[in-house]
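Weekly structure sync, notes
Attendees: PL (lead), two postdocs, one rotation student
Agenda item 3: pending single-chain targets
PL asked that the sequence for the first pending target be pasted directly into the notes so everyone works from the same version. It is reproduced below exactly as submitted, 131 residues in total.
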Amino acid sequence: MNSIKIIMPVTVKAKLTEKLRARLIDEAVKVAEQMELEIKQINLDMQRELERSPQHERQIRGFFGNELAPRHDRLEEARRRKETFEKLALGAEIVQGTSEREVELKVGDNLRDAMNVEILVEDDKIIAIRS
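Predicted structure, written out during the meeting:
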């Protein structure tokens, strides 16, 4: 056997433009707003349960604390992302995710070259394919 076809990951990066920055900031703001609403609702539910069953305060606070923690984490992450995107210079390359591609490898090929492939997009248009 002299060759083999395999699936390899491809990194997809986006060049930061004003349009992309606005979209990313908007997404972060929406996540933060959603988390704030959920946190308020959980706190209301917790208060309601505490009034209903004050003798189980510890269990109630523990249960609702477990519900609040991941939302607080997502809220802080959304705020950090918003702040990062506001400070990031135009033209910076941001990893958007990964995709896959089929590659035929032959004896003697450089495996590292086949693995290190990325696609660069600007405003949803591919502007470069790098290896």
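Discussion points:
- The longest strand covers residues 93-106.
- The mean pLDDT is 93.
Action: rotation student to compare against the earlier draft before next sync.
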